[in-house]
Write a structure and sequence with these properties.
The protein is mostly helical and 533 residues long. It has two domains: 368 residues, no CATH class; 73 residues, no CATH class. Helices cover 71% and strands 5% of the residues. It has 20 helices and six strands. The strands form three sheets. Strands 1-2 form a two-stranded antiparallel sheet. It has a two-stranded antiparallel sheet with strand order 3-4. A two-stranded antiparallel sheet has the order 5-6. A hairpin with a 3-residue loop joins β5 and β6. The C terminus is likely disordered.
Length: 533
Amino acid sequence: MELDVVELSRLQFAMTAMYHFLFVPLTLGLSILVAIMETVYVMTNRPIWRQMTKFWGTLFGINFVLGVATGITMEFQFGMNWSYYSHYVGDIFGAPLAIEGLMAFFLEATFVGLFFFGWDKLSKVAHMIVAWLVAIGSNFSALWILIANGWMQNPVGAEFNPVTMRMEMTSFFDVMFNEVAQAKFVHTVSAGYVTAAVFVLGVSAWYLLKNRHVELARRSIAVAASFGLAAALSVVVLGDESGYSATHTQKMKLASIEAMWETHDAPAPFTLVGLPDKENRETHYAIEVPYAMGLIGTRSLTQEMPGINDLVAEAEDRIRSGQIAYDALMDIRAAKGDAAPEATARFEAHSDDLGFALLLKRYVEDPRAATDEQIAMAAEDTIPGVFPLFWAFRIMVALGFSFIAVMAYFFYRASFRGMDFPRPALWFAVFIIPTPWIAAELGWFVAEYGRQPWTVDGVLPTALSVSQLSISQVALTLAGFVAFYSVLFVIEMGLMIKFIRKGPYQDVELVEDWFRRHDRPAAAHGSVAHPAE
């Protein structure tokens, strides 16, 4: 029954987190694109750029509001469904979340209001600064969230206190500059930039196909293609950095992503495609690229990358070491007179492996009483689902390289072919609008599913992290979230489609004034002459 509650709690958090992340990447990317567009408006004083800023800013606002609403729910879940996790590591995990709320979110939320309602109350330069503060706040908010998540992947700057029975922070500096967190941040925000670029590209392509808002669409494509090309290239480079950090922080995750069952002689090959078979410990029909994984994962030709089988054997050794730590912890808790100093020394020698002993609680109440068979089963549990990880990663990477090709093509057409875009290319840009979200969700699936069976890698198993709830309670709240989020999804899609179909708001007086000042007839400007504009 407890495992059923665990699985339902995981499903609920996964559903709410992945739904929330439908809004995050577009918010991150659109905030920067809108700020760039307004900067061009301030520099050129051309009304078309103000119109672009307002239009894409409206879509940003819709997305931002729903992102905030869904994000609040996630934080409440830590107390509702994951109370033991919150108790065990709340001192560390809660700190960056609190800073995000007090510093980044307040900055972002405050200036969002000024952005939308300050057009006629602020100078052009002041309003541009507001746009950039919104963008900085959005990205700064992501930084603190990813610092918290990065600590779950690589728990540095903290240690277990046997007296309080909790993890306690020892170095905020180490938590903040955790190599996994920093790699995740730059990779995630770059993916958000690609998402926004593909979105702007696709919507603008649709306008060109309908022969509407042509000038806005062409300029938007030019901005999106150049920004998106730089972002797509960054995603690949920074994703490589994430893989490199996993080589020494999450070896089992990396081995599972590669379906690397045995330790290869250095440098290890990269499996391009194949069918991983966990039961038989082999990958059928594998096509390998020699040396590639060794170069990516270790940046050398001489360093080995351990395979899954060797890592399982290592996990078994760490479980036995963790049993010693658990036994010493029980002696410390019992405070058996003269035994306490000796027990403390024994605990400190094996404390790094205490979390591995806790894996045994799935099979036995007291980890010290576990049989060899139970230890072997717990060690086997450290292997996440290889097949879904293997293919989720490869689909994500394939999409990532496709974005580079798409952005490079549209950048070339915008820069060197007079913004002449063939209709098949425009239709393709429309059809691929959903693909960056697919890539982003797959990326989070790889990151979070690949961490299993841990909530905090090597420290706290997922099965021990949940609240003492009944199956019916979790199932009821899961059904409620599904229903509520489905309604929000319909509202989000309805509002976005409505405003895209409606098109940009036209400051007619501003446009005509610009043409008068430049001694040009307003009729030459298509957006004034044509009612659809």
